[in-house]
Amino acid sequence: MNAVKTIDVKGLGHAEKEGLILPGVEALKINEMARIVVEFNPMPLVYMLKAQGEFEIASEKEGSDEWILQVTRIALKKINRNYINFLIILKIMTSRSLRQRSLS
Prior knowledge:
CATH topology: Translation Initiation Factor IF3
Radius of gyration: 20 Å
Strand content: 15-25%
Order of helices and strands: EHEHEEH
Strand order of the largest sheet: 1-2-4-3
Oligomer: single chain
Number of helices: 3
């Protein structure tokens, strides 16, 4: 079983919290869990993570001064096919352009 990562952001500013929480949960592999400890009701964070469809969220503790979420990655991000096609076309166009320059 993997070790559970705890991300405790109590007392930090908003930007600092985002800077720890978001990369922390994005780094999770499938079936890995992180505990997020905050001093406020984290419902906006819960909604945001659930909307991505990649995470399962459980509440470990709900209190007046501390909330603890258990965030488990259940899926990886789906790759946007349009973006992949764009990258392929860009690579083809770039390699053609480089070839034409070397022939000139």
